[in-house]
């Protein structure tokens, strides 16, 4: 008799994705998962509290119309039909893989970048292939040269862990040579100087994902979205759960999107901190990759990155130690408040005195 | 050159699932999607408002530990490792299909029942097969006789649209003969006299899903969960998005689960209304299926179900008209407040005067 609990083989084989450590709330300074160090917009808090006294016994709007209208306004899009709302951009990424990549087909991603894309391929029973960044974090033209079995390409832009950006012109050139959709994951785009949303209007195979977890400071609320041409939104909408976003998070995300001045202010503050921390890290001897995101990738000639991570952790500062096989390792440090960054730099300085 | 936007064939072929109508808030009496007519527990509202001033800029607990502890206590389970929390039980159902059913394999469901299961198979590129209920809403023994290509069986219990229940003994007997997992969808179990959670402790292939949308009156919050043996929870946890439940809904669901007295009270009130409406519908000449859920399935010898639905709708009362090919049609009426049900019955009475 067969095993009455036999999982899909793809699932039994795979390792789960491990997100960054989430210590219990307390004294730890969290600079490891690129959260916003500032509390959210008070308008957002008020919107949630108002929604809490609303008709929670009723199903929410299945397509988050209020949010999509506010987002279309903020982004200069023709209308809400260009937007698909999701339970975090994680859900949007899952929907994209399920929409385009069948079992035994492939998705492509740059290397090093966000390894969750690989997990999404694994869950789907699909394969993945990585194309390495060249010096200066540029992508070879071959990244856009997609054989028939590559059904989807992911490009985080700004990239993680590097914080580097490909220009819209470069993205357009890559997408033009692809025979499948290109997903530009713009989780960190609010911290950069440009973005690719205008390209979506011109090219049906350019799809842009965004999240409210980083720049809007709402990681706890789980809200993200896809920007794509209306026929793409309509097809991919078949995959989502009927009521994928709850009333509270729709209210929060709508209020957040309607306060672009708050966003500009917090981004300016964080980018100033990023510039200051990059300079100080360089003074400490780090090789600092110029970042357009809310984190900084740095390596030190001493090569003791893992030991530095552990020393910081012992001192209640959590950064991300990352090791990429056949490539190298380093530290990815999220932009915190100025005080948090000063504390981190002080401990790094004290570590380096003993090297 | 291939189409740069080619969806998985399964997706292009499929029709999307259409949930029940959600009219704009206003005067409509909604008796069509089995929501709870009463406002949620004030403790839940307070928990959300408190959480709104918490660290929303941080990621939530990826495995909703606080909720799982409260749920394990409420359900008499050994511990939180028997529970997987989801963004509505819809997400749990999606995870189950992705966990067990590969492209070109099959899932099985009774007929008539919840057609969303078919949509989930379609999205996955899998097939589905239906086994018809026998007279008296019993299932033939053949329902448990699963060939190798059937990888998952769904059993809503209580069933929709009938509101009928198979006993735990009957469920155990069916599961014992299956060579795949049996998902007992207990969305409506709080309105019934029994449930199958005890069976999970004995049988690894019995998996129970629950939702907070119905009895707890929290459809707007999107929270559901799976009860299964710990090794099943652990495997299926690989499929969910890393942070699938947000801080606000975790706070709400934890507070809800911690107030079992509130639940008992609202269920008693709704079941009393169900009994009263069932009796009155019978007096109006309807054939009423005895229900153990928060809705009633009824047919009338006049057969004018669709016309009745439309007449009710014209009078701002929305019920669910359901038509099952090769089986028949009827009305599924959710248990509302006593006033709402009185209004519905009055309009049905007025319709029937002219038949």
UniProtKB/TrEMBL annotation, chains A, B:
Residues 1-29 are annotated as: Disordered. Its cofactor is pyridoxal 5'-phosphate. Belongs to the class-II pyridoxal-phosphate-dependent aminotransferase family. Histidinol-phosphate aminotransferase subfamily. It comes from Novipirellula aureliae. This is Histidinol-phosphate aminotransferase. It comes from the Bacteria. Pathway: Amino-acid biosynthesis; L-histidine biosynthesis; L-histidine from 5-phospho-alpha-D-ribose 1-diphosphate: step 7/9. Residues 28-343 form the Aminotransferase class I/classII large domain.
